[in-house]
Fold:
Amino acid sequence: MSLPEIFGYLCAFVIGISLGLVGGGGSILAVPVLAYLFSVNEKVATAYSLFIVGTSALVGGIRQHLKGYVNWRTAIVFGIPAIISVAVVRHFVVPALPDILFTVNEFDVTRRMGMFGLFASLMIPAGLSMIKERRNGTNTVAKIGYSYFLIVTEGLVVGAITGLIGAGGGFLIIPALVLLMGVSMKVAVGTSLIIVAFKSLIGFFLGDVMTMEIDWEFLALFTGLSLVGIFIGSYLSNFINDTKLKRYFGYFIFIMAIFIFYIEFFVQ
Structure:
């Protein structure tokens, strides 16, 4: 086992701890860890990330359900179009993407650049969602109201993004649930975890498992370390003020986004 791989497994453990401590954001680091420390290509990195994200979110979602913070009606209405979208993207769209997406002034934009560039771009609002402090879990933006059309559209869009970049998209789902479905912030967080879990796992099994060879031993080890980290992080959260921790972690996500842009567009 090489030094980068050892560090990668350590990062898997740290990802879980961060999820347990701050309640989200850690899974978004799975793609860069897989890509840069285990040297897997963009298709495999985003595929494995879906499984890791989905499994981690399922554990968190079950915990939130036991606390009464999951609205299952909302999860179904939002989740079904998201599941369909991510499965279609992983099964049909990603395998069909060409190696060279397009060329600008003799500069080739590759599939890897496109997928990781989109991923890094969406890390920015994810970081902002962690840096911005919520006061007592309240939302100061006026609610739009219950709209099935907007909910289904949002589900399709979030599912497509999840399929392309391999991240759960909770930072997109939570505001949508609050604004479009009128649920409280705590319920939005719990419900979002259930949506992320099912759309990620179903998308992985209906898309990637059927179109590529999966290294189940590696995936189980990486995911298992993350899950152990989640429980440790959850325990540590009883003794740590997570407000500042979330803010610092948000800044770290910003740094990772800049790193990905630099590696993919200037070094590669």
